[in-house]
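I'll show a typical protein example:
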Amino acid sequence: YGMNVIAGFDIKEELAGTFINGIPVYHVSEFEERQKELNAHIGILTVPVERAQETAESMIAGGVKAIWNFAHTDLNLPDNIIVENVHLSESLMRLSYNITRYNEEHEGK
C-alpha cells in the first residue's frame, strides 16, 4: 500500500537503541523529538489502556495526523485527528462465529 513502518517507540529502556526487523526502536520519551526527523503521518498505538490517551496526545503533539488504535479504548482527540479503532477480541469473536456457522452449514456435505 506504499506505506512503511519507519520507527518504533517503547517504554522499555532496554529496547531503545535496538532494531527490530531493521526498524529502529527509540524510547517513548523521544517521540516528539524524533517525529520532527521522521515526519510520520500515521501512528500505530499499541499500549496498555491506561497509557493510551497520553501516548496519543504525545503522538499528536509530534505531528501525527492519524492513529491506528489497538489499545482497546476510545480516545478523546481533536476532530482533525483521524482514528481507526481495532478491537482484536471482537475480530476474533467474529472469526470464531463465522467458522462455526460455516461448519454447521457444511457438516456432512
